[in-house]
What we know:
The chain has 16 helices and 13 strands. By secondary structure, it is α/β, with parallel strands linked by helices.
Amino acid sequence: xxxxxxxxxxxxxxxxxxxxxxxxxxxxxxxxxxxxxxxxxxxxxxxxxxxxxxxxxxxxxxxxxxxxxxxxxxxxxxxxxxxxxxxxxxxxxxxxxxxxxxxxxxxxxxxxxxxxxxxxxxxxxxxxxxxxxxxxxxxxxxxxxxxxxxxxxxxxxxxxxxxxxxxxxxxxxxxxxxxxxxxxxxxxxxxxxxxxxxxxxxxxxxxxxxxxxxxxxxxxxxxxxxxxxxxxxxxxxxxxxxxxxxxxxxxxxxxxxxxxxxxxxxxxxxxxxxxxxxxxxxxxxxxxxxxxxxxxxxxxxxxxxxxxxxxxxxxxxxxxxxxxxxxxxxxxxxxxxxxxxxxxxxxxxxxxxxxxxxxxxxxxxxxxxxxxxxxxxxxxxxxxxxxxxxxxxxxxxxxxxxxxxxxxxxxxxxxxxxxxxxxxxx
Length: 426
């Protein structure tokens, strides 16, 4: 569903006030409102309407008998706590609870290092912290605070300039194109950098991945420039199908790798940084300095171990079925007479992909919610983002619940969705 803080739309002035003019204390309630106040009221009304639509969308998704994905973090607390019912299958619950990173947290770190084929791994409460720590550690070793990355990468789009504001790093953009950087772009970049960060897959470009050959060429290009390579692997777990390689072979291309425990594994949260033992030990010292050495993390660590045990083996199945869903969606939208539509990537690289349609975002959002409420089938369960006049896109996720959908089911749901669009009725 993608409803995280990174998708927030509120903006604030430097002193914390919402953007907009201060109210005039001399203006009484019966006087005409100025344009600034009218604009503020319009903005507040839009925000309120958006919040109501989001609440309806989540309620429709929860109650719909059929959905392409059941993402745990939007479920009720009772369901989230029930995830820990499987804890005894992944860890000895008679052991003492963790204190400041030992016990079950250490067991999780060892499991991650084993899966990725690295010397060690360190647990972090967030990926934002894990990647800042990794790259500042590399900066100390390379002597360069410059991090080359994609303009659509997570730190650039969703982290409020954390690299530069908190960690003293200087990000530079190799490219802003909605694709992965090329080896030529890395090799010919016009200023030196100490580290190259690659987000695999690149979420904001459509969960896209390079080919294996392209990835190895990009890594080689960075090495030619004597730069280290760090993988933002928040969703690395599901990349094995596209690359046709096991996790440890993919991870071995990089000097360090970050992975998430909730984006694909349905955990409560948390992340891990994996790499050489000396780097991980230094990272743990910085984890403490950043406030990430939390007193007890056993619920999050247990949920992560459960995800690795029960969800990780199923990800290839989800990726394979996402390709069936994407093809059926493309066919269903075309057969229903949509003037233009795009499924991107045409063949999904992971179990997530984008759908683009030539309508206003609010029209598509309302139609999607109404279709879920009235049919019990949540085809488009995520929010719609405007990308220009009369153009919007949404992200489609396929998980275990989506395996119940046949291609015919998807085509029928797509046709029903199109029939409900106002333009189609006209």
